[in-house]
Fold this sequence. Notes:
By secondary structure, this protein is of the alpha/beta class. It has 10 helices and 13 strands.
Amino acid sequence: MNILYCGDQGISKGVLISILSLLMNGRKRYDDDKKMMVEDDKVKAPIYNIYIMTIQYEDVTPFSKKTAKFLDELVKSYNPKSFVKLIDATEEFVGNLPSKNMGSYFTPCSMLRLYIDKVPEIAKLDRVLYLDYDVVCRGDISEFYNMNMNNVEAAGVLDIYGRRWYHYHGLFKQDYMNSGVMLFNIPKCMKTKMFERAVDLCMKRWMLLADQSALNKAIARRVLVNRKYNEQEERPRVDTVLHHFSNNFKFWPYFRVQKVKPFEIDKVHEILKITEYDDLFEQYDKLKERL
């Protein structure tokens, strides 16, 4: 399975937890009778081809080669055929700078996924699953990854907030996807020049959540999948496969944006009241000093 992360060195803690979760939970499936995730002995240890795109631009600290090498050793310890490859996309990014959205709340690296078509190592792939650095895997993702993508550019889950306000194929049709988990059909995207159109939008128009808005505008053919593949609520459901620690709006006793990431373990315990990831956090604590 081809997996993609994008960002600077600041995402390294999240990427470590996300990769660890893929390695530790990649053989689990949801058991209808037990109503829980269970280890499936029939599922072999997955082969993960993990790509990390980064840049060296102005004050951005690129994702380090040392960290990438450590992560490569880590995934190989689970399956020797797996790998982690770091890709410097500075030239591609600077050559097509998303100028209208460079001053946004998010770092320039948030838009790196839009440059997939300009990176030969990824542009030649059949499909790639993009994950934000704050996505934790709880089970086998192969069914999602291997889904039918004929004549479709991307697959994803509705955004829990944006679906109510943004509509691209009809006034009342919900089709606004969250970009934290997206499965791309690369040949189809290359044929329709989807990524090129998304970058062009970022070069010409300011947008709120630029990368996500650009993708939603540029993707002509999409398929929406079950929320279990990108659960954006603060607590996962029993059948959740990918839990996205995205920002959540809170209205009581006052309005605020609640931002808790997986590597903020105390906050996960104290604010979210989640303890089910403690085995994952224990492994993370043993390895985080090597980042």
